[in-house]
Amino acid sequence: MSAAIIDGKAFAQNLRERIKKAVADLAGRGVVPGLAVVLVGDDPASQVYVRSKAKQTIEAGMRSFEHRLPATTSQHELESLVARLNADEAVDGILVQLPLPAGLDAAPVIAKIDPAKDVDGLTDISAGRLASGRRGLVPCTPLGAMLLVKSVLPDVAGAEAVIVGRSNLVGKPVAQLLLQENATVTIAHSRTRDLAAVCRRADILVAAVGRPEMLGADHVKEGAVVIDVGINRVPAPDLGPDKTRLVGDVAFEAAAAKARAITPVPGGVGPMTIACLLRNTLTAACARHGLDLPAL
Ligand code: NDP
User: Fold this and answer.
1) What is the Cα–Cα distance from 56 to 74, expressed in whole angstroms?
2) Is 118 a catalytic residue?
């Protein structure tokens, strides 16, 4: 079998267009969703993410509030900012860009975010709601991964799903989303025995490990849907000295030879993250104003 490539970039673009229309409709009713992004310090990768989040927020017709704080910001100052954003009526979503600089503790900052504005889905309340199947805001990358699964497999009920990785950020929420849709879910991790055999059971295989091209042909069942969440930068001597390239946690060519559909890296799950952040901001704005979420 030669796999269909799941084009996350196109899917994300299409989702952003649909969000933009819904936002315009909402604006007509007097509600303009607002997203506040807090960046502490000058980590170059975080700066790039924050810039593109702000750009896409504005392109979607939403308000973007950027708060750039120096690396010397104290824990108290950061938590006070979150408290102010909680109280700010114009702000529907709050995202604190992680990682924070050394010396700042992320957990109490995240805990301060009003769950109604937790568009990153990282508070314990959001995680608890997801785990107990109640309505709430879902972490963006897992939500993006799930939307891509459903783009090729609209009904996952009864399917065997194996998620490799059990982080709170990716693995566990992806597992919860698949479980909610009635898949039979296995979560594998670094202590899993005979990982390849476990993975080969999967109709849906989700890799969220952080190890370049760790899952190969041996891990993929013929006809499986493979979702590669991994983003790893590896040396690429073929491109020149000191050059690098991005690869996923799945050895793409080997897996694609067996899979029915597969996400590439880059261009798969990655582009879905910001699109889902916008979707969550829209969801939060509708919920805060007592409006139904428009069909997207
Ligand atoms: P973590 O490092 O938090 O978790 C990795 C998980 O993989 C752990 O549960 C770990 O198991 C498991 N693992 C590690 N080694 C093995 C192994 N040899 N066999 C089986 N399982 C193993 O990573 P994240 O969940 O935060 O991220 C995973 C990947 O997703 C990364 O490549 C990251 O860059 C990418 N990512 C992409 C995003 C995007 O597309 N926008 C956003 C977030 C992440 P154990 O718990 O036992 O240690």
Assistant:
1) 29
2) no
